[in-house]
Write a structure and sequence with these properties.
This protein is mainly β. Helix content is about 5%, strand content about 30%. The chain is built from 1 helix and 7 strands; from the N terminus they run E-E-E-E-E-E-H-E. The strands form 2 sheets. Strands 1, 3, 4, 6 and 7 form a 5-stranded mixed sheet that branches. Strands 2-5 form a two-stranded antiparallel ribbon. A hairpin with an 8-residue loop joins strand 3 and strand 4. It is globular.
C-alpha cells in the first residue's frame, strides 16, 4: 500500500552552532526595539542592541497582548550571520559568554573596541 501525504516546508532558521547553551527566563513587552507586528523574533538581542545586552532570545514571542516570558541565551555558540539583526560591537562585548561564529563556523574575535 502506498502512503501519500502533503510535504511541509519549514522556514525556521537555526542560529545555534551547538546544542549546548544556557538560558534564563526574562520578561519582554511591546516596547522592545526588536518587536515587529507584535512579535519579538528569535535571535534578537535582549534587552537592547548596545552595551546593556545580556543575551540572545531563543524563540519568537508574541507580545501583542501584553508582557511575556522569553528565554535569553546568556552562554552559548551562535552563528552571527543567521540572526535577524547583527549585534552591535558594544553588545558583542557585553555578552561575554556568548561566542559568535561566521558562516564557515570560524569563531569571531571580540570587536576591537573591547
Amino acid at each position: 500500500m502506498v502512503y501519500v501525504q502533503k510535504t511541509e516546508t519549514y522556514t525556521e532558521i537555526n542560529f545555534l552552532k551547538s546544542q549546548n547553551f544556557l538560558s534564563f527566563t526574562k520578561q519582554v513587552d511591546d516596547t522592545h526595539a526588536g518587536v515587529v507586528n507584535g512579535i519579538l523574533p528569535a535571535g534578537s538581542v535582549f534587552p537592547a542592541n548596545d552595551a546593556t545586552a545580556e543575551g540572545i532570545t531563543i524563540n519568537d514571542v508574541d507580545v501583542s497582548k501584553g508582557p511575556q516570558p522569553v528565554g535569553v541565551i546568556i552562554e552559548g555558540h551562535i552563528l552571527i550571520e543567521r540572526l535577524p539583526v547583527k549585534p552591535a560591537d558594544a553588545a558583542q562585548t557585553a555578552m561575554r559568554e556568548v561566542k559568535f561564529y561566521d558562516a564557515n563556523g570560524k569563531m569571531l574575535a571580540l570587536p576591537s573596541g573591547s
